[in-house]
Amino acid sequence: MTANSAYVIVGASLAGAKAAETLRAEGFDGPVVLIGAESERPYERPPLSKEYLLGKAERDSIYVHPPEWYEQNNVELRLNTTVTGIDRAAHQLTLADGGTQSYAKLLLTTGSSPRRIQVPGAGLEGVYYLRTATDSDRIKAAFQSAKRVVVIGAGWIGLETAAAARTAGADVTVAEMAELPLLRVLGPEVAQVFADLHRDHGVDLKLGVGVDDITGTGRVNGVRLVDGTHIPAEAVVVGVGVMPNTQLAEAAGLEIEDGIEVDASLRTSDPDIYAAGDVACAYHPLLRTSVRVEHWANALNQPQVAAKAMLGQDVTYDRLPYFFTDQYDLGMEYSGYVAPGGYDEVVFRGDKQRREFVVFWLKQGRVLAGMNVNVWDVNDAVQQLIRRGEVVDTARLADVSVPLGEQG
Q1: pTM beyond 0.85
Q2: Are residues 155 and 250 in the same domain?
């Protein structure tokens, strides 16, 4: 094998590790190189804001593979290595240490990075962002000592870290510019469920208001809102979204649109370069649009399709977007895709007050997405409803005596 026969993966993440695993499982016996900027071998990110942050899971549980897996499967794992450029004509990567790496096929699983809040005091000690295992370790330690925690942003990361801080015994305030948590994602009908959940667990929600500055001298001592309210805090967690890490792809001239544009086989505008996970804006044949999904299921499943496509197989990625959360005594699964404001009806099935229900978002009588809250073993049926794309009887859909498999 020559140097430029290597299949190279940039991004030693869950997505990168699953791509390497799939290449070997599919019989590829050439060089596989997995390059990552972090010092940690590939790990999963959901536990960082869930079980691991809560102290319910050990460090070893977050890793995709045991350390010996890479050598046993002849995967060259290069950590602490940053790729600085892609020469598409030469099929070669440049590295921060001055080295190079040739490739026959290239997969980008470069993920995303937290958006940074642009207010005075954002650089104070005690202001945290959650993306890496090291971030989770620091936040976990802060929650053990902080009596008061402010979370800026009421998205999934913000709410999960708020739940962890409350579980650790801290007084928690969440500051969010929208009128409800998760409003853009879930709409007002379901977003209210999460507002009520956190208030019931003692979280002070400051909604519809922005942050003016983070206060302190050297170390944070609070957050001041634009309405003048000052909230004391020993720790501040910022969760205001993420940005896809497209810099490499953009500099190389690949097509970019809310991520690296790829087709249904995860192929970019360059036939020898692919992308998967958070960074990929992929055409979805069922949804008939391109979507970028920042959730675990895409990082788990997309690279398996990308790896097969790199090997010349005729494959497409058509799994429905899926994610889950666990906050306090609420667990849920969500399947499907609804653009903000892209629905005209919401149907609840079950007991909303007890937070044991399934909820559906519909447009013109067709189910676009569904979320089961503290109701289990129904996600497959929810996905089937979405895939069928048929007009449903909403009265039957809401009736728990009519099985989900008998809808439509």
Answers
A1: yes
A2: no
**Residue 375 resides in a domain:** yes
Per residue, what are the HEC states of 285-344?
A: CCCCEEECCCCHHHHHHHHHHHHHHHCCCCCCCCCCCEEEEEECCEEEEEEECCCCCCCC
pLDDT digits 0-9 by tens, 346-399: 999 999 999 999 999 999 999 999 999 999 999 999 999 999 999 999 999 999
Based on the fold, state whether residues 215 and 77 are members of the same structural domain: no
Distance between first and last Cα of the chain? 55
CATH number for the domain spanning 90: value is 3.50.50.60
The residues of the chain scoring below 50 in pLDDT are 1-2
Say whether both 399 and 340 belong to one domain: yes
Ramachandran quadrant class, 165 (left: phi over 0; alpha: psi -120 to 50; beta: rest): alpha
CB 216 within 8 A of CB 222: yes
Which of these, 338, 333, 300, lies nearest to 319 by C-alpha position?
A: 300
For residues 138 and 232, membership in a common domain is answered with: yes
Give me the domain span that covers residue 368: 329-406
Strands 356-363 and 100-102: unpaired
